[in-house]
Structure formats: structure tokens, C-alpha cells
Specification:
With 257 residues, this protein is of the alpha+beta class. The chain has helices spanning 2-29, 33-54, 57-77, 79-87, 101-120, 136-140, 151-157, 197-208, 237-256, and strands at residues 125-129, 143-148, 168-172, 175-181, 212-216, 223-227, 230-233. The longest helix is centred in the N-terminal third of the chain and has 28 residues, at 2-29.
Length: 257
């Protein structure tokens, strides 16, 4: 009886494991150019299976050759993504980057501390915190870092005339994944002409994603938070901490439902 049930459950378990692995690979590369290639390979795989079932020998031969070439092409074109993925295999947040409350508070505290010190020095900054919508396309436009979030590192990046000062910084979970990233400028015609490019970029990326963006004006040192395509005024450090915690905590609750 045990042998009978094992042979019934074995293919089901194998299919479930393969589906889970493939899904996690797609999620991992979502928002990057590799995601589009994986989707294309999926279509080719479906066509390959259909050709085998229907007995299309010529098409089957052609697709077999394409798959053989594709393996080499993927290794060459996406060596950077593959290297980063393998390097992250040992990290606990590779498939789930949601943070515990204590970890979330620690990240917010580091960011808040850095932003206020930069504000006092009138050093402009642009920090985007990723939520459910992946920012892979924007990460690819910058310099990959993959470093733990720290106030000192954020301040160093946005020090005037530092190599990575221009552009935005992207945080995923408790990691600074990239700096000097290019963000799209807002297309909102009602946007104040007084505010500069950094603020336009802050609002622009929230129009393309659900990220939270903190921006410091280089001219006045004023701090603003952009979310859901609009700016939220910041009056003090406590307000910034609580606002970020509320926005990020609500995102975590939505994921858990």
C-alpha cells in the first residue's frame, strides 16, 4: 500500500517542487531584462513540448538547436545577474525579504539618522525603499552595492562630489542594493516648477512603483517623502520615522494576508 501511494504522490511532489523553483526564479528576476528572457524561454519550451507531442520533427530539431545555443548565450549575457544570485543563495532574504519588526525599525533608524545629518549639512539625497513592485530596471541603471543599510554608508554616498552622489539609492529589505540609479522624472503637469530634478525623480519613481522615496533638497536642506505619486511633508525626525514605519508596516501586513 505504501509503495502504491508513493508512486502516485511522487510525480505530484516533483511537479510541485519544479513549479515552486521556477516561480521563485521568475520572482527573483522580476523587473530586470533577465525576466523578459525567461518569459521568452518559457514560450519556447511550450512550443518544444507541443512539437514533440504533435510529432513535428523539423520544428523539434530546430528548437533543440535553439535551446543549446540559448544556454551559452544566457551565461554570457546574464553573467552579472547569475553571479549576484549565487552570491545571495546563503542569505536568508533571497526569496523573502520581509523584515521582522525589530529589523524594520533598525533599517528605518539608520535611514532616518542619515537623512537628518545630510539635511543639516545641506547635502542632497534621494533614497528609494522598495516595496512589492520590484525596482530591478532602475537598479540596473546604477552601481550595484549589495551592502547592509547603515547611516554612515548612506552619508558617504551622498557626500558632495562623491562618485555616487548623483542619482538615487535603492534599498531592498535591509540591503542597499544600488546607488547612482536613474529614476524617471514625473509627468505630472501640476508639479511645482520651483522644485528641482531630484524632487521630480522622487515623484516619478512613485508613479511607476509603490516605493517610498525620501528626498533632501540641496538648496534648503528640507526633507520630503514621496509615496503614491504625491509628497508628504516632514516636520521633524520623529515624524519621518513614524511615517516610514507606518508605510512599510502596512506593506508587510498586506503581504501576510
Amino acid at each position: 500500500m505504501y509503495y502504491f501511494y508513493f508512486h502516485i504522490l511522487k510525480p505530484i511532489i516533483e511537479i510541485a517542487v519544479l513549479w515552486w523553483v521556477f516561480y521563485q526564479v521568475l520572482v527573483f528576476f522580476e523587473g530586470t531584462r533577465a525576466f523578459l528572457v525567461l518569459r521568452g524561454i518559457t514560450y519556447l519550451l511550450i512550443a518544444f513540448l507541443i512539437s514533440q507531442i504533435m510529432g513535428f520533427e523539423t520544428l523539434n530539431w530546430l528548437l533543440t538547436k535553439i535551446f543549446a545555443i540559448s544556454i551559452v548565450a544566457i551565461l554570457i549575457l546574464f553573467h552579472q545577474e547569475l553571479r549576484q544570485g549565487l552570491a545571495r543563495l546563503g542569505q536568508s532574504h533571497i526569496f523573502n525579504i520581509s523584515l521582522e519588526v525589530s529589523e524594520l525599525d533598525a533599517v528605518i533608524e539608520e535611514v532616518t539618522s542619515a537623512v537628518y545629518k545630510l539635511s543639516r549639512q545641506k547635502n542632497g539625497c534621494l533614497v528609494a525603499i522598495e516595496r512589492s513592485v520590484k525596482l530591478g530596471t532602475f537598479i540596473e541603471s546604477g552601481i550595484n552595492l549589495d551592502a547592509k543599510v547603515s547611516s554612515e554608508l548612506i552619508q558617504t554616498i551622498f557626500t558632495n562630489y562623491a562618485p555616487l552622489h548623483d542619482g538615487g539609492l535603492i534599498i531592498r529589505g535591509d540591503r542597499i542594493v544600488a546607488a547612482s540609479c536613474l529614476f524617471p522624472l514625473t509627468e505630472n503637469q501640476n508639479f511645482s516648477k520651483i522644485l528641482g530634478t531630484r524632487h521630480r525623480a522622487a515623484l516619478g519613481i512613485t508613479e511607476h512603483s509603490d516605493s517610498i522615496v525620501i528626498v533632501v533638497s540641496e538648496e534648503s536642506g528640507e526633507i520630503s517623502v514621496a509615496a503614491d505619486g504625491k509628497f508628504i511633508p516632514i516636520v521633524n525626525k520623529e515624524r519621518l520615522f513614524n511615517l516610514m514605519r507606518n508605510l512599510l508596516s502596512s506593506e508587510k501586513k498586506n503581504k501576510s494576508k
